[in-house]
């Protein structure tokens, strides 16, 4: 890709960007959210048409008019956002658009057999007949991978493919990547997990603000600070900017919450405190938070706010009691992507901007502007559709919604998933600001360095049960892992 430029109304997304990929290579595409990575890849996949520049594929100049043309050429992409049909089976999703036929009907036997072979080759223990809606997010992610590799593929783009995977599943994905490399497939890999760079990458190209910065050869002993500085244009002095904040009164206490996923879970959080929840995939952390906020029904358990027992049966009850929940799936559950920034920010507290039964557009605009300025949301206008914002700024819009609603307890579920290293620090600082302002902050994260770096206390779960609690002075990765596997670290 040579001198690729791309302009949207009012925005120059790419400015003469250069990128190259060899067969049998894993080339990491790096940059902060909004750097232009996804736009560049969408041009390569035929989703967008470039404004200018040239693309050479297998030595020949090409025009990639649409997605179908790209797939015919052997160019496939696995998007960060899952692109599956929930009510169809694993097999139907893998072969969607190219279902094997037998006469005028579907050759179900052939489709299931082909799917089973693909799953076996990838060492995935999935039933081809299982509806995708019954799979975990991690399993759905692997179905996306299976769908991509089942096609003719010479060039494969992976956009944050490990964001929802466990360590074991990541190992399985890297095994698949290694096999594809040996077959001569060129892989463009987008990830914000710096540790993955040196494990599977051959080279890394950095984009910043829609411009090409530099391509680095990746070596096992290279200093990642060089890459980070290239990405954000400055030195990152502290990855986890945690500060000591005086802890106040108990704000939230839950006792013996039980659902079909969690059993007898009890914990408390105080004003000014950040409490981290750690555990392996499927430990029950998200399920506990959903039960606490009324998103999922619970069988038993009590919730206390400032020492007073409250009733939370629905998510609306949680909002009324000023408990905010930033879900792990910000696009599917945290935002209404077709609405603009100001509409999303005020969505949880419409009563504040209703004047005599009518929505006040002026109040909506004033409220949104105040929140955008307060937490530094980068958007060209308040009327910008949230679907067009970067991942970090989408996360800020979700946070702004709960701050505008006046929440005293804020739950962050995987707050930095799919967010670049610079934006992560901004999210951490916002969490600290909320704690400093007297809120109680709960953070669920699968990234242990994040949990250790940001938490005053760490609560660990395994198989739906709280297995232990560690103070900031006592917390360590090996202790968390022992508790996460159901054991006792002492």
Number of domains: 2
| Shape-level CATH architecture of the largest domain | 3-Layer(aba) Sandwich
The average pLDDT value, as a whole number, equals: 87
Spatial strand order of the main sheet: 6-9-10-3-11-12
Low-confidence stretches: none
The number of E-state strands comes to 24
Write down the Rg. 23 Å
Instruction: Say which CATH homologous superfamily of the largest domain is assigned.
Output: P-loop containing nucleotide triphosphate hydrolases
CATH topology of the largest domain: Rossmann fold
Query: Regarding CATH, which class of the largest domain?
Result: Alpha Beta
Query: What is the end-to-end distance?
Result: 55 Å
- Helix fraction? 25-40%
The shape is globular
Q: Describe the biggest sheet? A: 6 strands, mixed
Determine the structural class based on helices, strands and strand pairing. Answer: alpha/beta
Relative strand content: 15-25%
| Count, helices | 17
Could you name the key traits of this structure?
490 residues; alpha/beta; Rossmann fold; 2 domains; six-stranded mixed β-sheet; 33% helix
Question: What would your notes on this structure say?
Answer:
- The structure is a single chain.
- The chain is α/β, with parallel strands linked by helices.
- The protein folds into two domains: 2-232, Rossmann fold; 250-484, Rossmann fold (3-Layer(aba) Sandwich), CATH 3.40.50.
- It is built from 17 helices and 24 strands.
- The strands form six sheets. Strands 6-9-10-3-11-12 form a six-stranded mixed β-sheet, with helices on both faces.
- The termini are far apart.
- The mean pLDDT is 87.
